[in-house]
Amino acid sequence: MAIFKYMGVIGEEKFFDKLTVRITEPHKYNDPFELRVNFKSKNILSYGRSKIESVVLHSIKNSLKRYVIDSDEIEFYQHDIDQNILEEICEKVGTTCFTISKETKPVNVLMWAHYADCHRGIAIEFNENSDVIKYSSPVTYASRRPIYDAKALDDLDSVSLSELYVKSSEWKYENEIRLAQRLEDCELENGIYVTNIPIDSISKVFIGVNADYKLKELALNFHKKTNIPIIFTKISETDFSFEVTQVYEK
Prior knowledge:
This protein has 250 residues and is of the alpha+beta class. It contains 6 helices and 18 strands. The mean pLDDT is 89.
């Protein structure tokens, strides 16, 4: 197993210069269903609290999961409870995303196309045991959106952000995990939040098959400064995959 982060041209330049990655607020994700949590009730109730009071960034608890309404019960929940958790999260928290691969090379054609500027960018391989990955949480892929019993609003003081990482099964090709960060702990550069990545969390950097000369030069300068291996790739002659052409190591 390997863990990669695919990055486009703008992001890679900042990464090579300052070892930063973007932290994206949820309302800027490319999926409009992200973190939109639906609560329903069987009856019109007066809740002790108007909202869940806090969102925990890193937790292994599944406190909200037990309130998911079964599909064969949903007809009995006629009352929508308006709780805009997304709006509150966007004011405080962002994430950066990685993909888990069974391959030792980043060969996901769609990830290169969608997140690395049509193969002009890079794929950073992360050490599995690094804190960056240790504190990341997986996305759950589902055929239907979870709807929660509004009793959760009374019962729970907090939920883990990772419990809200639920996406349509159509996104499964991403095999995604996420690292959450509080925006107040990030740097703001030209309207974009970024955070520093510890150099010891990075094992390799792969260069996309459509990368230009400028990027390759940035990558080699980065290698000279850090000794992190840089791997150039080319299109496979036999498969819908990529082959290694040059490796720059210590």
